[in-house]
Specification:
Number of helices of chain B: 24
Order of helices and strands of chain B: HHHHHHHHHHHHHHHEEHHEEHHEEHHHHH
Largest sheet of chain B: 2 strands, antiparallel
CATH architecture of the largest domain in chain B: Up-down Bundle
Shape of chain B: globular
Helix content of chain B: 55-70%
Radius of gyration of chain A: 15 Å
Oligomer: heterotrimer
Structural class of chain A: mainly alpha
Chains: A mainly alpha, B mainly alpha, C alpha+beta
Chain lengths: 97, 844, 325
């Protein structure tokens, strides 16, 4: 279980961010400014969480334990990077929409 | 070296063992795995057979749906033609989409999984062979009956996404829509059964030391595929159930005049519907990633990045459902979030495309039929992907949404992303199941006809859409230039069909079924499915040391065949396979597998009968059929969960593994947990619907029953969970053969019923399911719960019967474990729904 | 690129050759999407070119080129960096365009309620207080150069309102009102069609938006207002037949006792460019054909066939309707 959480943590943060943002937009369909501020704040929080996760997984990768652990750490790092880009994009509507 | 289970990896060094295996061991293995002959073949549950039937059935549905498409193309070749009357045309396009998606694409991927996965993982079979057989039969019987509705003019005609209110009782009074709702809902159940099987198979039956980093890409693809089914399909099951309840009992889930909302359907449907596209694409892409290394004679470049792409897609594809709803007038901010996610989801696809190109560049590609299909599919898929990026741009989508541009886009994606890969698969893997390979000469003709046909058919459709032709029109008006592009599309469709026809000729001439005398590894693949196999799959299960074991260890095939690896015989005297740990694939125990049985077939027919008879409103035969199905399932379960004679057996090189294990590490526990995730998703979808209607229809929201009215139900649920837990504890302590542990478990299971009744009593006093959307969803919570409570009651009876026959193994027992898990979950979910119904209050 | 207004042009504006309507905008709301379409096309062609070139090298290239392509770097470059750059640019463009298109209409803009019904369109021009001023069906008149707000509704199932030369489409959903803005830069008639499958003859559910010079538009509307006053019965045979055949059960003609609201309003049917919801040109022959057997022309629509009526009666009815201008 810990392995999977470590591996997929970044994508879980993406999920929290996406559904959080969707929820915010649905709860405040009229009050666009409030929704945008909340979504923006959520985006920053998630980006920070992802940065922390990415650092952690990268450090785990550099620890060079054995082939399997290293591979999982590498994949976790890559997934954290993907999540970072996706959450970053997901923040655009708060600025532009 | 770290270990996951305490297994010492040093032990792997004992393999391959030097000593020869004893005489007669192979014969014993062959005898155990021998398949019935004649009519008894229908009782076969082995994946070599069931997998092939499954593939064949899915391909049959592809042909049938393809014929529908051809007739539609004839109708649309020229304006205002009368070849297909309006009503028939509407049934045809609905069936074409539905059959291609639900009866061809998803089952085909599942079928290929059943057929190829055990071989690739070097397992003897999938962990639940009878469940595979059940999934196949349910799908086949259900699918054929569903398709037959077309011949009596009762086929659904509301389009494959069945938007209410058009599909509600008022505008679709006939039983056509019910065929769709019940037929598809039921086929989804079969898909979920298959998905559970695949997840447990990939995570728990891999060959020893096939750690996650060495796992073949197809196993990753199927793992993600099946997990996505587990998350996505409950949404479509829930919305079909809602619509059926609205049609049958007038519960207004989608009726805006009574506090429902037609868009609720669209949210639920597309929460399933968009991931569905990736559910189809990922396994096909995974198969391409398996074939390219062999076809280009090199290792896959970017293996890790492809795994990354799969995992990222698995998540992000659940954030794009509303891009099918850009034209519904959603709030701008939400639209933006979906547009951004739609962009993000295309990055993983790009990774895969470039990884394939890089692999071709680094190797020496051969000019043969599977290579052509892989390359052709790649080009077609890229074109579909690019139009996909275009429609993710919201304003552009406002123009092309629901036009032929979209028809072109989705066919490019699915044909390039799934159909061409499947044809490549046919050519590449046919040697596993046929004694003769398919013809290269005919194959190349097939490819070129299909490739040209696809472009001539679908390229002009982009323009047809730009010219203003909407989807799903049975005709169009003359006097413009629509005729030209439409005529071209019709010509192309026949070229494509000619290619498929040629493939059938090839198949008829060259396909000769065999399990153990296949034409073999025609293209020189390096993965375990090309080990020499018999009915029992590989004679012994090798220790995996790399991603391409056959390339890296030239002796592996001989050593495997001579039984120099794990499980060379049948130490318990049964069919069996090795259960390994999920991350590092360390051997954990020997699973005893069931053999041929008629019960999966009977229960599948019973299940199909239940749903289909329900459609035609034959209630009594329907329920009789349902009860028959339940009895058959229980009968098939009865043989399972038995102990073998020996507690531990030698699985090779003196390594001893247990034959009976209980608790969280068992494959049964895993399957139950996955099943409970499905159930939880059903609950989550109901919760979403409740909150959604609360948000969009506040005027219809009534004050719910007071919180205090739920206390009785909560107390009873708590007691139920407590008794169930107590039963398991008592069993673990009990030395004698007393009834007390089972009695506690049974009391726990049965207490769920009064809890549910108490909840229903106070909810129905305030909320009426017919009056408002709120009432309808509140009762949907209860209906959901009722289903679980009934299953728990059945489990209680079953446990009672097993206790009576003294089949409950002590001190720990899988049957009791699973009953406990299920009852506790049911109690928790019941409490949660009781609270939610009472706490979502309009006044607050 | 302006097209002459004729009774057939409404059909032709949907079903004509190049440029297709989506790329031949007649107003600002469709115009910016047409620009976007070209940008997206260019993007798609360039990316497809890159992929095909890479594939060509991978298959047929020289050993040096191939070995450069055959590594992880290519995936990072082509599969990750390239999409991220392209998609970021597109996302910014798309979101800003969505925002610009979504700005509310100027206050005091003309409002029209358009209701999708199985399988035609009910049109109601609203006055400044939001009350229905005039009824019409399957045809919408607008002034050139002004933004018009459409309140899109549905009376039964989901439909979708789409005039490709004026705007993207927007669904008409029971229980909701969706607002759409349209604006035409030049006079002309612009065809449209229902874009959401709505059962039966969905394929034959078209309509026309006619844009007039503002002065001309105001004259037409004023004439129509004047026609609302009750007029004396003409006493013609067609009028009697209209009553006796039961036409008035579903159809309304303002200023007469005929007041059915189930079907399209026929007050100005004589001026319409099309019949049967955008599918036939409007002339005496098509009118007679439609009255006699609308089911043969548009199977499944709600108008029963009147083939029991003798040909003379049908002709007189058609004459009467022609006069409703």
């Amino acid at each position: 279980m810990r392995t999977w959480v470590f591996l997929l943590g970044g994508m879980v943060v993406w999920t929290v961010h996406f559904f959080g943002a969707y929820g915010i937009a649905s709860i405040f369909p009229e009050r666009v400014l409030i929704a945008k501020l909340l979504a923006g704040g959520l985006t920053l929080a998630c980006l920070a969480a992802l940065a922390w996760l990415a650092r952690r997984s990268w450090a785990a990768f550099n620890r060079k334990e054995d082939a399997v652990s290293d591979w999982i750490a590498l994949l976790a790092s890559l997934l954290n990077a993907v999540a970072l880009v996706a959450v970053f994009w997901q923040g655009f509507p708060a600025l532009l929409a | 070296m770290t270990s996951e289970t305490g297994f010492d990896p040093e032990l792997y060094k004992r393999f391959p063992v030097r000593e020869d295996r004893p005489e007669g061991e192979l014969e014993e293995l062959e005898r155990l795995w021998e398949q019935p002959k004649g009519w008894a073949r229908l009782t076969i549950v082995n994946n070599n057979y069931v997998g092939l039937w499954y593939v064949a059935a899915a391909f049959l549905f592809f042909l049938l749906a393809g014929i529908l498409a051809l007739v539609m193309r004839v109708q649309l070749a020229l304006p205002l033609q009368g070849i297909l009357p309006q009503e028939t045309y509407n049934q045809f396009f609905t069936m074409h989409g539905t059959v291609m998606m639900f009866l061809f694409a998803v089952p085909m991927m599942e079928a290929l999984g059943v057929m190829l996965l055990p071989q690739m993982l070097a397992a003897r079979d999938l962990p639940f062979p009878r469940l595979s057989a059940y999934a196949f039969w349910a799908y086949f019987v259900g699918g054929i009956s569903f398709f037959a509705s077309l011949f009596v003019g009762l086929a659904p005609n509301g389009g494959w996404f069945m938007y209410p209110p058009l599909t509600g009782k008022a505008f679709s009074p006939g039983i056509n829509a019910d065929f769709w709702l019940l037929g598809i809902g039921f086929i989804e159940i079969s898909a979920i059964a298959g998905a559970i099987e695949i997840i447990v198979g990939v995570l728990r039956t891999r060959a020893p030391n096939m750690t996650l980093d060495k796992m073949p890409i197809f196993a990753w693809g199927m793992l993600v595929f099946a997990s996505m089914i587990i998350i996505a399909f409950p949404a479509v099951i829930m919305c079909t159930l809602f619509l059926e309840l609205e049609r049958a009992f007038n519960w207004p889930f989608f009726d805006p005049t009574r506090g429902g909302d037609p868009l609720l359907w669209q949210h639920l449907f597309w929460f399933f519907g968009h991931p569905e596209v990736y559910i189809i694409f990922l396994p096909a892409a995974a198969l391409v990633s398996m074939m390219i290394p062999a076809l280009a004679r090199t290792t896959l470049i970017g293996h890790d990045l492809i795994v990354l792409a799969f995992l990222a897609t698995a998540f992000i594809s659940f954030g794009v459902w509303s891009h099918h709803m850009f034209a519904t007038g959603m709030p701008r901010l939400s639209v933006g979030f979906f547009a951004a996610a739609s962009m993000a989801v295309s990055v993983p696809a790009g990774i895969q495309v470039f990884s394939w190109i890089a692999t071709f560049a680094s190797g020496k590609p051969r000019h043969n039929t599977p290579t052509l299909f892989v390359l052709g599919g790649l080009v077609i898929f890229v074109m579909g992907g690019l139009t996909g990026v275009m429609v993710a741009m919201v304003p552009f989508d406002w123009q092309v949404h629901d036009t032929y541009f979209i028809v072109a886009h989705l066919h490019y994606v699915l044909i390039g992303g799934a159909l061409f890969p499947v044809f490549a698969v046919f050519y590449y893997w046919i040697g596993m199941t046929s004694s003769r390979p398919l013809s290269e000469r005919l194959g190349k003709w097939t490819f070129w006809l299909m490739f040209v046909g696809v472009h001539v058919t679908f390229l002009p459709m982009h323009i047809t859409g730009f010219m203003g032709m909407p989807r799903r029109v049975y005709t169009y008006l003359p006097g413009g230039d629509l005729t030209f592009t439409n005529f071209l599309s019709t010509v192309g469709a026949f070229v494509l069909a000619a290619g498929v026809l040629l493939f059938l000729v090839d198949l008829a001439r060259n396909f000769r079924f065999t399990v153990n005398k296949g034409a073999g590894n025609t293209y020189g693949g390096g993965t375990l499915e090309w080990l020499p196999t018999g009915l029992y799959s590989a004679r012994s299960i090798p220790v995996v040391k790399s991603r391409y074991p056959l390339w890296d260890d030239p002796d592996i095939s001989r050593d495997v065949e001579e039984g120099r690896y794990f499980l060379p015989g049948a130490p318990t005297g049964n069919r069996e396979t090795l259960i390994t740990s999920p991350v590092r694939a360390e051997p954990q125990y020997v699973q005893i597998m069931p053999g041929p049985s008629v019960w999966p077939l009977f229960s599948a027919v019973g299940t199909a009968g239940f749903f289909l008879l329900l459609t035609i409103e034959a209630y009594i035969p329907s329920f009789a059929s349902g009860i028959l199905a339940v009895l058959c399932v229980l009968r098939w379960m009865w043989d399972t969960d038995r102990v073998a004679a020996a507690e531990e057996v030698d699985v090779g090189a003196g390594i001893m593994l247990p034959t009976y294990v209980t608790g969280r590490s068992t494959h049964g526990w895993w399957a139950m947990v996955i099943l409970l995730i499905v159930v939880f998703m059903l609950f989550l979808m109901t919760l979403f619907s409740y909150l959604y209607l609360f948000g969009v229809q506040p005027d219809f929201w009534q004050e719910p029953p007071a919180l205090s009215t739920g206390f009785v139900a909560l107390g009873l649920y708590g007691a139920a969970a407590g008794f169930a837990w107590l039963g398991r504890r008592l069993l673990a302590r009990e030395k004698s053969t007393l009834w007390s542990p089972s009695t506690a478990s049974i009391v726990g299971a049965l207490l769920l019923l009064p809890a549910l009744i108490a909840d229903y009593w106070s909810v129905s006093a305030v909320l009426d399911p017919v009056m408002s959307g709120q009432g309808a969803v509140a009762h949907a919570f209860l209906a959901n719960q009722m289903m679980l409570v009934l299953i728990a009651a059945l489990m209680a009876l079953y446990l009672g019967a097993r206790t009576a026959r003294n089949l409950v193994i002590r001190p720990r027992n899988n049957t009791v474990d699973l009953v406990t898990l299920f009852v506790v979950y049911t109690a928790v979910q019941g409490s949660a729904s009781a609270l939610i119904i009472r706490l979502v209050s309009g006044a607050g | 690129m302006s097209r002459p207004i004729s009774t057939r042009s409404s059909l032709e504006s949907v079903f004509k050759g190049w440029p297709p309507p989506v790329l031949d905008p007649a107003g600002p709301y469709a115009g910016s999407i047409s620009v976007l379409s070209w940008v997206l096309f260019a993007m798609a062609v360039v990316v497809l070119g890159v992929v095909l070139a890479a594939l060509g090298v991978a298959l047929f290239g020289g050993q040096r080129l191939k070995s450069r392509l055959g590594g992880q770097a290519v995936i990072w470059l082509g599969g990750i960096a390239l999409p991220i750059v392209v998609l970021t640019a597109l996302l910014v463009y798309g979101l800003s365009l969505t925002r610009n298109l979504g700005t509310p209409a100027p206050p005091g803009a003309m409002r029209v309620q358009v209701t999708g019904e199985m399988w035609w369109w009910r049109v109601a021009y609203l006055d400044s207080s939001g009350k229905v001023a005039l009824w019409d069906a399957n045809e919408l008149h607008i002034p050139v150069g002004e933004t018009v707000v459409l309140e899109l509704r549905s009376a039964d199932v989901i439909h979708s309102f789409w005039v490709p030369r004026l705007s993207g489409k927007l669904d008409m959903i029971p229980g909701r009102v969706n607002l759409m803005k349209i604006k035409a830069d030049k006079p002309g008639s612009y065809g449209g069609q229902c874009a959401e499958y709505c059962g039966g003859p969905h394929a034959l559910m078209g309509f026309v938006v006619v844009a007039h010079e503002p002065a001309e538009f105001r004259r037409i509307m004023a004439d129509r207002q004047a026609a609302l006053a009750s007029k004396p019965p003409s006493g013609g045979r067609g009028e009697q037949l209209f009553a006796s055949a039961g036409c008035a059960a579903c159809h309304r003609i303002a200023g007469t006792p005929f007041n059915g609201m189930a079907g399209p309003d026929l007050t100005h049917v004589g001026t319409r460019r099309t019949l049967g919801a955008g599918i036939l040109p409007n002339n005496r022959g098509t009118l007679m054909g439609w009255i006699g057997n609308a089911q043969a022309i548009k199977p499944g629509n709600r108008m029963p066939p009147y083939s029991v009526l003798p040909a003379d009666d049908i002709r007189d009815l058609a004459l009467y309707l022609e006069q409703q201008r």
